[in-house]
Amino acid sequence: MDAVFRSALASRLQAFWDMRRLAGQQGLTTLQILRYLDRFLVGKLQPGDTITEEVAQRWFRSMQHLSAGTRLHRITVLRQICLYLRHFDPRTCIVHRSFFPRCNRPTPYIYTRQEVGRMMAAAKRIGPPGSLRPAVAYTVIGLLFSTGLRIGEALKLTIDDIDLERRLLHIRLTKFKKSRYVPLSPSTTRHLAAYLAKRRRAGFPTSPDSPVFVSLRRNRYSHTGFTTVFMAISRKLGIRGPQGQRGARIHDARHSFSVHRLLAWHRSGANLFTKLPALSTYLGHATVSSTQVYLHSTAELLESTGERFHAHFAIPSAKRHAPR
């Protein structure tokens, strides 16, 4: 795919992008950042020039108004392209990691079971009347909270990925290029079967490669499209504040699933550290340490841990056991 770069480094940027694609690293974010960099370099570099420290500093200053996460992505790509360019021109600067902004992850919002129930009820009431849209919203929201799927994984599902008899979802080549099977509870399986029947009656294709969740345009729901629906519902219910304010996100459905699962295990007396590898595999995490962060996500889990510690190790009250 020709990325149509136009700066003095156009051929190098194109070769770098081609190399990334051949290695299977086809992130559209990287391509977009390369295009931003290319437009920035137009007029600043002449044929034969390279990215010097001065040019890199000007690139840094040009994005001071952006969020820390956005700047981190752009500087990461710049560092990669500079390392590549240095093989051809030793004058190319090396972007030191000290230039990377600190990017703190937002604290996850843990939805309560009551909030999830309200959101699913609200999803049934969205319009337009007579369309499949309310059933799609209701089913996707329920699936996210009952399985911990990433929203992209849910929206990528095809008819062939659902095995109602064995109560399994096949999640194909998702993050980290991994595939996995996700077991479904009996109630989730029933709701999913009811949705598929409604989808079939509405006349949507049922071939194995057909998308499960379809938009009003009868094609696969996009990440942005469904997130817009989700956010509208959460704002209407007061779970998230007005537009422009940070708050509960769609990805927090995954956090909520994980924390509620850990809390249920903890209350049943299970050793959470022996359960973490199973949860990590279920969620499709690359490492168990990625799952371990959920141990610190809610005051409720910490309170339950404290109660168990007190029950096992606290010193009995002297007053309660005093001789009568």
Strand order in the sheet with the most strands: 1-2-3
CATH class of the largest domain: Mainly Alpha
Query: What's the CATH H-level homologous superfamily of the largest domain?
Result: Intergrase catalytic core
Number of helices: 13
CATH domain topology of the largest domain: hpI Integrase, Chain A
Count of discrete domains: 3
Shape: globular
Q: Average pLDDT across residues?
A: 85
H-E string = HHHHHHHEEEHHHHHH
Q: Portion of residues in helices?
A: 40-55%
Radius of gyration (CA) equals 25 Å
Secondary structure class reads: mainly alpha
Strand content: under 5%
DSSP summary, beta strand count = 3
Separation of the first and last Cα atoms:
87 Å
Largest sheet: 3 strands, antiparallel
Q: From the coordinates shown, what is the CATH architecture of the largest domain?
A: Orthogonal Bundle
Low-confidence residue ranges: 317-324
Structure report:
The structure is a single chain. The chain has three domains: 90 residues; 124 residues, hpI Integrase, Chain A (Orthogonal Bundle); 62 residues. Helix content is 51%, strand content 3%. The longest helix has 18 residues. With 324 residues, the protein is mainly alpha-helical. The chain contains 13 helices and three strands; from the N terminus they run αααααααβββαααααα. The chain has a three-stranded antiparallel β-sheet.
